[in-house]
Specification:
By secondary structure, the protein is of the alpha/beta class. It is globular, with a radius of gyration of 14 Å. α4 links the parallel β3 (about 85) and β4. It has a four-stranded parallel β-sheet, sandwiched between helices. The relative contact order is 0.22. It starts with a strand and ends with a helix. α1 (about 15-30) packs parallel to α2 (about 50-60), α1 (about 15-30) crosses α6 and α2 (about 50-60) crosses α6 (about 125-155). The protein has six helices and four strands. It has a single domain, classed as Rossmann fold (3-Layer(aba) Sandwich). It comes from Selenobaculum gibii.
């Protein structure tokens, strides 16, 4: 069983969308018993829910973030994860500065998908920006899907 963790800043936009998109792919491929996905944030306001923009972006894909509650990233969550995918290179560097022992399982989402882009924070932006962010995350997940499946098979 592989445990994938997505990390962003507040766990109200990017990482919950990534979690939801990957969870849907896992479910569609009937791999729920092989891959678990979660999300957390570096600076969470406890009890926060997904932003309306993130909820609308997922709803447009037939998915829901209605029950999402932001989770603060903690050392146990990091240690439990087999693969940690951050939304930006800066998130990755921040995690590795705090916990250097987990190097080798932390990547930016783009890096793991063999791309160079960071996923810009759509917080406070218009609905179109959230849609574009969700699309960007979805495309990167498509690009790294085979890697995750291979990792799950090897685990």
């Amino acid at each position: 069983m592989v445990k994938v963790l997505f990390v962003c800043t507040g766990n109200t936009c990017r990482s919950p969308m990534a979690e939801t998109l990957l969870r849907e792919k896992i479910s569609n491929q009937h791999l729920d018993d092989k891959i678990i996905v979660k999300s957390a944030g570096l600076a969470v306001s406890v009890g926060s829910v997904a932003t309306s923009g993130a909820r609308k972006a997922m709803l447009s894909k037939g998915l829901s973030l209605d029950h999402h509650v932001a989770t603060q990233l903690t050392l146990p969550i990091l240690e439990e994860a087999d693969l940690i995918l951050t939304m930006t290179k800066q998130h990755k560097l921040g995690i590795l500065q705090a916990v250097p022992s987990i190097e080798g399982k932390v990547y930016s989402l783009a890096e793991y998908a063999d791309s160079q882009i960071d996923i810009a924070d759509p917080f406070g932006a218009d609905e179109m920006t959230y849609q574009e962010c969700a699309q960007q995350i979805s495309q990167l997940i498509e690009r790294l899907w085979d890697k995750i499946c291979t990792f799950a098979e090897e685990k």
